[in-house]
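Hallway conversation turned thread

IA: we were arguing at lunch whether anyone had actually written out Pectinesterase end to end. Turns out nobody had. So, for the record, here is the sequence (414 residues) and right after it the structure tokens. Reply here if something looks off.
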Amino acid sequence: MGRNMALPLVMALVALVASLPSASPATAGTAGAFDNWLSANQKDFAITQALYAKKAVGDTGNSIDESLAKAEDNKTTFVVDPKGGGDYKTITAALEAVPEGNTRRVILDLKPGEYREKIFINISKPYITFKSDPKNPAIIAWNDIAATLGKDGKPVGTVGSTTVAVESDYFMAYGVVFKNDAPTAKPGAKGGQAVALRTFGTKAAFYNCTIDGGQDTLYDHKGLHYFKDCLIRGSVDFIFGFGRSFYENCRIVSIVKEIAVLTAQQRTKTIEGAIESGFSFKNCTIMSEGGGDIYLGRAWGDSSRVIYAYTEMSKEVVPVGWDGWEVKQPESSGIYYGEFKCSGPGSDARKRVGWAVDLTEAQAKPFMGTHYVFGDSWILPPPTENSPPSKKTSSGGATATSPAASPSSSPESR
Ligand SMILES: *[C@@H]1O[C@H](CO)[C@@H](O)[C@H](O)[C@H]1NC(C)=O
Ligand SMILES: *[C@@H]1O[C@H](CO)[C@@H](O)[C@H](O)[C@H]1NC(C)=O
Ligand SMILES: *[C@@H]1O[C@H](CO)[C@@H](O)[C@H](O)[C@H]1NC(C)=O
Ligand SMILES: *[C@@H]1O[C@H](CO)[C@@H](O)[C@H](O)[C@H]1NC(C)=O
């Protein structure tokens, strides 16, 4: 990519700074607000880091993790049906029935319908699966935004706005719609962050799911994550965090007529383990429903890392592509933004910022597969088989269906 375009580049950056919403994930209308946001986040991180200090990127072996194999060999299914007739009417109730220190795969078979629940999966409950039918899905929806007041009378903040938060490991979801249906804030509006899904556990896989919201839709917070055949809709910074994640065959859709920013990846030297993070997109489609310009990413962390490979980009993707945001000299920072063999009118790399990389095959390779997230140790196929019948009969009595009788599909060791 040409680097002899200093003047147009400077002009483009000036125009960009003037045109970008200044406030997400930071609610930074002013430097003061930004500092407040930063210190609030630092406080958050201090707490969570103390709790999760030992849980960095994790065991990256190349055979299925032993604990996972055991969990899969002893699975059980809870049927959740809002209309009754299942084992539980709400996801919250089903999750309460999972013991702390859980060691078995617990599949929540979610019958179609809307679940108006705000869900938090505690770190002590690993191996949970949300299973639904992509053609007739379970829709989990809530509508908190960062400015919503919590029980303590204070704004819940970005983390607290989440509809579904997963803090445990080995989570899996298939065919589920995760939604934050708060009215769409003006892009960048203060306190407008409205997270639909936050993944803070490691080794989580999402298949045929929809993650739907506006500003800050998917908090790909921390850990190894895999998103396959998913639809992700949002406006500003709608995939953000310091997850190390591989997005394959996903549709990434901007819903705004103003400016959308697809990613705010937070790779940084200042958070333990975060320097290993980065988002990799392969064979995805980027498009706009709202018609507004789209940026591929802007740097939240000092070393933000995002790769797009074989991805189709609609015409709304701006020629410069990327933005350094708060990073003063992106060209000499640790930012790593790259593209490889993308297509579509938005993929023309000739006017990209000079510090983005037109990757060679060798450079792209480490990012272009489940090996990027050490998938061999944990990625299993989605649970598409039919579930055993509910433990409850329609008359409410218990039946003899035992977990051992459920169709067993042990993990394939690869
Ligand atoms: C399966 O899980 C149940 C419930 O946690 C436990 O009591 C049982 O011992 C487990 N079975 C095996 C073979 O691990
Ligand atoms: C997770 O569960 C444990 C045990 O019940 C509890 O002490 C802890 O506060 C919970 N964590 C969060 C973040 O709610
Ligand atoms: C999952 O999504 C992909 C891509 O949209 C589609 O081809 C596939 O049929 C879906 N799988 C199921 C089981 O719905
Ligand atoms: C690319 O993604 C589409 C779905 O968006 C899928 O149908 C197709 O098979 C994928 N191609 C490859 C090579 O994975």
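OS: looked through it. The mean pLDDT is 82.
IA: good, adding that to the notes. Residues 249, 283, 285 surround 2-acetamido-2-deoxy-beta-D-glucopyranose (ligand 4) (CB under 6 Å).
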